[in-house]
UniProtKB/TrEMBL annotation:
Classification via InterPro entries: Knr4/Smi1-like_dom, Knr4/Smi1-like_sf
Organism: Sporosarcina globispora
Pfam families cross-referenced by the UniProt entry: SUKH_5
Protein name listed in UniProt: Knr4/Smi1-like domain-containing protein
Domain Knr4/Smi1-like stretches: 16-133
Domain of life: Bacteria
Length: 313
C-alpha cells in the first residue's frame, strides 16, 4: 500500500481517519470495507490519481464535507446504479468507481459504472491494482524492449500458454518464419496497461504493412505470447528453477513452461521473454484478441503483434 500511497497526487493527501470513524461509515453504508481500503484511508482521507478521485469519509478532523462516501451513496447515488454496488470514487466524466456488496462485505474487485451507458465493468482485481494502472506514467506509451529469444523451427505459435499444443482451435500457427534472434517489446497505455506484445526478427523494427490474421486467439489466463513452435510447452527448455510466484502445482508435462511464463508476467514489466518466446499480460485480462503479421520481400514472417486494445463499446 505504501507504493500506492506514493502514487497519489500529493495535493490530495490529508490526515487519515480513525478506526472508529471507519467502522461508523461501514455501519452507515451497510457493508464492510476491504482491508486495503481501510489501510489507505487510515493513512489519508483523500486520494486523487489521474482523473479519478476517491470520496472522503466524514471525519471529526475535517469541516463538514459537501460530499463524502455516505452522502454520495444516499443522496447523490446514480438512479440506474445496481443495488449491489457502492460508489467509492468518480472521474472527471462522472463515471463512478465501485465496489460490489456480497453478504455485507465489499469485494476487492473494482468496477467502473459508465455515466452515459449505465454499464458497469470489472476493471481490476483490487483498488491498489487499479490505482497502479491509472496513475499517469511518463512516456508509458513508448515501446519497451523486454528481451530477445531465438527461433529455429521456422514456425511460431501465438497463444495463451495455458493451452496445450494439440488444442488447435485455441491458437495461431505461423509458418515460413525467419529463423534467428528475435526481439520482444511491449507497448503500454497511458495507464501502463499492456496494449500490445510485439516481436520482430533482428534488432531493427521492420517497416511495412501489418496483415491481420484471419483467426483471433482466446485468452483464459490473462496472458498470451509468441513462441517458437518447437520449444513451446517443453519443460526441458526451462533450464533453471522457476519462482512459481502463484504456487502452481507442477504435476503435468508442460506446466513448468507455463509457470515460467507466469513468473515473467508477474514482473513489474508485466511480461518478458522465456526460452523460445515472448510473453505478456493480456491488457486488462481474458478475452479474444487480434494477431497481426509483417512479412519481408521473401514472404517470410518477420514481425508478430498481439493487440490487447479494448474493443469499442
Amino acid at each position: 500500500m505504501k507504493k500506492v500511497i506514493n502514487m497519489i497526487n500529493p495535493s490530495s493527501k490529508v490526515a487519515g481517519v480513525s478506526l472508529p470513524e471507519l467502522k461508523k461509515t461501514e455501519k452507515e453504508i451497510g457493508a464492510i470495507f476491504p482491508e486495503e481500503y481501510k489501510e489507505l484511508f487510515l493513512a489519508t482521507n483523500g486520494a486523487k490519481f489521474g482523473e479519478w478521485t476517491l470520496f472522503p469519509i466524514q471525519s471529526n478532523g475535517l469541516a463538514a464535507l459537501t460530499i463524502d462516501i455516505v452522502r454520495q451513496n444516499r443522496e447523490k447515488r446514480p438512479i440506474n446504479l445496481p443495488n449491489d454496488m457502492i460508489c467509492i470514487g468518480e472521474n472527471t466524466k462522472g463515471d463512478k468507481l465501485c465496489y460490489r456488496i456480497r453478504k455485507r462485505f465489499l469485494q476487492e474487485l473494482i468496477f467502473i459504472w459508465n455515466e452515459k451507458t449505465g454499464i458497469s465493468k470489472c476493471k481490476a482485481s483490487t483498488l491498489s491494482e487499479f490505482i497502479d494502472w491509472y496513475v499517469p506514467k511518463g512516456n508509458s506509451t513508448k515501446p519497451k524492449t523486454v528481451g530477445t529469444f531465438t527461433v529455429e523451427s521456422g514456425e511460431l505459435i501465438v497463444t495463451d500458454p495455458c493451452y496445450q499444443v494439440d488444442e488447435e482451435d485455441l491458437h495461431i500457427i505461423l509458418s515460413n518464419v525467419k529463423n534467428g534472434k528475435w526481439t520482444a517489446s511491449i507497448i503500454y497505455t497511458d495507464e501502463e496497461v499492456v496494449e500490445s506484445l510485439f516481436a520482430f526478427y533482428g534488432e531493427k523494427k521492420p517497416s511495412g504493412k501489418w496483415y491481420e490474421c484471419e483467426k483471433t486467439i482466446p485468452v483464459d489466463s490473462a496472458q498470451a505470447g509468441i513462441f517458437d513452435f518447437a520449444v513451446f510447452g517443453r519443460d526441458e527448455a526451462i533450464q533453471f528453477a522457476v519462482k512459481n510466484v502463484y504456487d502452481i502445482e507442477i504435476d503435468e508435462d508442460g506446466l513448468k513452461y507455463y509457470v515460467a511464463c507466469c513468473d515473467v508476467v508477474a514482473s513489474d514489466a508485466q511480461g518478458g521473454v522465456v526460452p523460445g518466446g515472448a510473453i505478456s499480460m493480456s491488457g486488462y485480462g481474458d478475452g479474444i484478441y487480434e494477431v497481426k503479421v509483417k512479412y519481408n520481400p521473401s514472404k517470410e514472417v518477420i514481425g508478430v503483434l498481439i493487440d490487447f486494445g479494448e474493443e469499442d463499446e
